[in-house]
Amino acid sequence: MLNKIDEKFQNAQSSNLSLIKTEMNLFDKKLEISYQEKASELSKKYASTVASNLYAIQTLTVQIKELELENTISDGCKENVLTEYFRLAEEIQKLGISYDWKLSRCLIDAKELLEDGIKLDPMEYPEITSFLNSLPNQFNDVVGTIRKFLA
Q: Rounded distance, CA 5 to CA 1, Å?
């Protein structure tokens, strides 16, 4: 009789051990899924924060270039002003499509200086030509006029 009780006890213990193992495996799977979801969520938030910070930095860079341009204008050297317009235009382009109006205004101002007879330093031609090549087709008119002065 004692053997039967002992056998039933061992069977129950073995059954409980299997049940515990099964529950632990389920818990591990749920924990892993939860961890992956949380990691994915944090990754998305981090990427969004990084993108937002990069955009803020680029916006500040444009503001700095605008201040440098104002300072150069007040110094009166038109050749330097022309160069600063192109540098500002490059930074504005990095902000994206929503700033195309500002980029267009900057290119038009540079074109007007060229039309007034202001000359660029020939050492800057490759950099400016490369920048002009990177502009979308919507700027073809003003870019074409600027290119005439660079030739």
A: 6
